[in-house]
Write a structure and sequence with these properties.
The complex is a heterodimer of chains A (about 210) and B (about 270). By secondary structure, chain A is α+β, with helices and mostly antiparallel strands. Chain A has 6 helices and 5 strands; from the N terminus they run ααββααααβββ. Chain B is built from 13 helices and no strands. In chain B, α4 runs antiparallel to α5. Classes of the chains: A alpha+beta (about 210), B mainly alpha (about 270).
């Protein structure tokens, strides 16, 4: 039995070292190790041990984002709606409730969208001349973007959930970005507001 | 851990259809997993989505069995399988805390506290597995803090003592009461930022020593309660606190478990005569 115990201990140690090495490679920024090593670590880690520990790092979020949408029905365009308003109110009133989870989903979906948006924005700045060309370039790219489709899916399901009687034809949305003043100017400056528009989604064209 | 998973599912039940159903708010992820990954992402499949209640029911039943100590090995496996499927398919709702929860639930599958002390091959295998995954859990949590610190040191806001100001300025990660009170107190924001950074930096070093472990974990509980209720990341904060249980000694664990279990005292294991 002692022999078995030694074999098992050796195997366990081997697994422990291998697993920990894979964890280090997987959580390191791309380029730290050879690409093939990152790929092997991904194959092992993603299905069972996916992890990401850069919450609020290297920098904490420095902007607050809100999603506003409106839909077009036979009677015309509706008012602008922020789906997160009720989630935020619920989350403020009850820290332990599903409102917080809905708010987090809203925040994350918007975050993924804006990551795509800024990528295309930088490309447009590089490749296009006029403001109109830049906007057209971004709109065209966003319409094909996975994250734009994710927001449309979210808004469609939100409408079906909260306003099931609404027969809409198109959805328009924008992202309102609130930038708090830099730390050193927090007592003198006010938050800055930006509004970023996205292409209108038409049910008949899709 | 099982109590938290039970609570997490119960408080999401009112919006279960919006999270997991065929008309879920979350879009379907286009990630193409391996066969193993597919088994843990079944609720991404349109054909499986209508059966999401089966996953919830199985999870709840086996959570109750797990909490009551019945069929512990099967319960651990079913709890991991159903929880991973439910949480993975609602990925935009969750954060790193849920990643840690899934990893720890998987480790629990291989931790068998009911192993006998007789030197049989079966017992030796279980002892080795239990000790390996227990060590892995301890290393994982210490490593988590190490990585979080390294990433934070790569930026400016944490080193300049400004990070807490930015986090609390964001409505989604704050509370109007905190914004009205804390954001005006400069010294508290700076001290809070440096304390959070120092705690994460020191954790992977000090958690291994008996003398420093207890005060460190007490500070950690306060820190993560602030994340849970102040920053509003309830699941992240609570999972981190629960994960500290892997650093308790056998005597400390027995003491805590005896506080919760009425009548049935958890005895110290002794070698059979």
């Amino acid at each position: 039995m002692k022999k078995w115990s030694q074999i098992l201990t050796a195997l366990a140690l081997f697994f422990l070292l291998g697993h920990f090495a894979a964890t280090i490679v997987y959580t390191s920024p791309r380029g730290t190790f050879p690409k093939s090593l990152h790929q092997r670590a991904d194959q092992y880690m993603i299905p069972l041990f996916h992890q990401n520990w850069n919450l609020f790092a290297p920098e904490p979020p420095k902007v607050s984002r809100a999603l506003f949408f409106r839909c077009e029905t036979a009677e015309g365009w509706s008012e602008w709606i922020n789906p997160a308003t009720t989630f935020m109110e619920g989350h403020y009133s009850y820290r332990v409730s599903y409102h917080g989870k809905l708010l987090q989903a809203n925040t994350n979906l918007l975050h993924y969208l804006m990551v795509d948006y800024y990528r295309y924005y930088l490309l447009a700045e590089e490749k296009q001349e006029t403001e109109q060309e830049k906007e057209e370039f971004i709109f065209e790219a966003m319409e094909k973007s996975k994250q734009y489709k994710a927001i449309i899916h979210y808004l469609q399901q939100y409408l079906a959930w909260k306003m099931p009687e609404q027969e809409w034809q198109s959805i328009e949305f924008y992202c309102e970005v609130t930038i708090p003043p830099p730390y050193k100017e927090r007592t003198t400056a006010s938050p800055e507001l930006q509004r970023i528009k996205f292409p209108i989604y038409s049910a008949s064209n899709n | 851990m099982y109590l938290f998973v039970l609570f997490n599912t119960l408080y999401l039940l009112p919006i279960a259809a919006q999270i997991w159903g065929p008309d879920a708010l979350m879009p379907v992820w286009s990630y193409k997993p391996s066969i193993l990954g597919k088994g843990l992402n079944l609720l991404f499949m349109d054909a499986v989505k209508p059966y999401f209640w089966w996953f919830i029911a199985a999870q709840l039943v086996f959570l109750l069995l797990g909490i009551l100590g019945r069929l512990p090995r099967i319960a651990a496996l079913v709890i991991y399988f159903t929880t991973a499927n439910l949480l993975n398919s609602a990925y935009p709702m969750f954060n790193g805390g849920i990643n840690l929860l899934e990893i720890l639930l998987l480790y629990l599958v291989f931790m068998n506290e009911d192993t006998g002390l007789q030197p049989t091959l079966k017992n030796t295998i279980w002892h080795t597995l239990t000790n390996t995954f227990f060590t892995l859990a301890r290393l994982q949590i210490a490593y988590l803090y190490f990585v979080a610190t390294v990433y934070k040191l790569a930026g400016n806001a944490w080193l300049d003592g400004e990070a807490l100001y930015y986090v609390l300025s964001i409505d989604e990660f704050s509370h109007p009461w905190l914004q009205a009170s804390l954001l005006k107190v400069d010294w508290l924001l700076v001290i809070g930022t440096y304390l959070a950074l120092a705690y994460q930096l020191l954790f992977p070093l000090l958690v291994w020593f008996n003398k420093t472990r207890k005060p460190l974990l007490i500070v950690g509980v306060v820190f993560h309660l602030f994340i849970a209720f102040g920053v509003g990341l309830f699941d992240f904060g609570i999972i981190m606190i629960l994960s500290y249980s892997v650093y308790l000694s056998n005597d400390q664990s027995r003491h805590w478990l005896n506080r919760w279990s009425r009548g049935k005292r958890i005895q110290k294991k002794t070698t059979p005569e």
